[in-house]
What we know:
Elements: H1 11-16, H2 22-44, H3 47-50, H4 57-69
Amino acid sequence: MAVATMVSSAGGLLAMLNENHPLLKLHALSNLNKCVDFYWPEISTSVPIMYPLKLPFPLYLVLKEEELRN
């Protein structure tokens, strides 16, 4: 049985952008992309943190593969 999760803030995902592990950053970016329409005022203040993130090529492929599955 699938359970929907309600998110009331993008704060947790935004905090993941400051983690050292690249997969956490990838997870955060992927999920922020899904909720940007709802939480843009909160997310917009972190654009300077997101902009310089450069995903290594293999991580980019993982992100694209995940988008195709969803």
